[in-house]
Amino acid sequence: MSAGVDLAGARALVTGGAGTIGSHIVDQLVQAGAAEVVVLDNLVRGRVANLDRALAEGPGVVRLVEGDIRDVRTVHELTAGKDVVFHLAALRITQCAEEPRLALESLVDGTFTVLEAAVEHGVEKVVASSSASVYGLAEEFPTTERHHPYNNDTFYGAAKAFNEGMLRSFTAMYGLDYVALRYFNVYGPRMDVHGVYTEVLIRWMERIAAGRPPLILGDGKQTMDFVHVEDIARANLLAAQADVTDAVFNIAAGEETSLLQLAQRLLHVMDADLVPEHGEARKVNAVTRRLADITAARERLGWRPEIGLDEGLRGLVEWWRAEQAAVPAPTP
Ligand SMILES: NC(=O)c1ccc[n+]([C@@H]2O[C@H](COP(=O)([O-])OP(=O)(O)OC[C@H]3O[C@@H](n4cnc5c(N)ncnc54)[C@H](O)[C@@H]3O)[C@@H](O)[C@H]2O)c1
């Protein structure tokens, strides 16, 4: 039996679907001809506006339910009758460190509820969001999926690693089909502009727009492997469609970019003649290097990143400027 889901006419549940990545998955599900897309999001970080496009393009297809994956009854109600579940709802790494019990309840217990409901209601496949955080600071580069998870020391990474184990055990116990995707450094439109855990790129755009240099925490030699949010959403759809189960894949560009290079690229894209400044390094997630091997996703899912860093940054700046223009100026 094929583990691939035909998305045309499919009924999907997207947990965390009002967030950065989830809302792009919802857009692409509408474009793929899904019959029904239900978003379950408690809006702790996600925004209703992130679904504007999907609601406009897929009237009657997309429905937002403001609710929590910790609410067992809601999760079961919304999972009934679905062909596929995209599970994204989670707290960010920084919040997990600050509120580990809430993280346990949301990332671990909440994920258990999502998987339990998927099994009980005969969902064909779960596509789950994991993270490069499961590796911690890797010992080998480019890092393959076979790298061990014992260098991770974050609660977030521990929860994501446990979720991957939980998925495998549900396959062994109940025959659940799933694919888990380990995203590396995600960026793109709908990144959280207003939140406390705002990404470094947003802070830099704010500073550059105000004529101030971007502030790099640490020496800037730390590298990341940036992957655009639309490429990630496409990986999710391919993971659902592919005849692949019980597998995890790195989702990244497969290229490393230092923070200093990133700041310089952003300055270039924003036409700013400034020199980056340096500040004290972050305490959580002090991973100094990331570079993924993305061979497996290419070979087994037919996925490859399509949006290069410069193109992606240009789109991000454009989106961010439009967001700024939409915010009313403060009254004097
Ligand atoms: N952004 C990254 O760099 C990155 C990297 C690796 C993995 N991931 C994973 O990808 C997934 C999506 O991340 P994102 O960047 O879109 O984050 P996001 O914060 O924009 O989206 C997560 C969504 O989940 C919702 N949510 C949180 N707790 C919930 C709960 N208990 N019940 C219902 N909804 C809840 C939030 O409101 C938000 O809309 C997450 O699982 C995240 O861990 C993200």
UniProtKB/TrEMBL annotation:
It comes from the Bacteria. InterPro entries: Epimerase_deHydtase, Lipid_A_modif_metabolic_enz, NAD(P)-bd_dom_sf. SUPFAM superfamilies: NAD(P)-binding Rossmann-fold domains. Pfam families: Epimerase (PF01370). Gene3D superfamilies: NAD(P)-binding Rossmann-like Domain, UDP-galactose 4-epimerase, domain 1. Residues 12-252 form the NAD-dependent epimerase/dehydratase domain. This is NAD-dependent epimerase/dehydratase family protein. It comes from Blastococcus deserti.
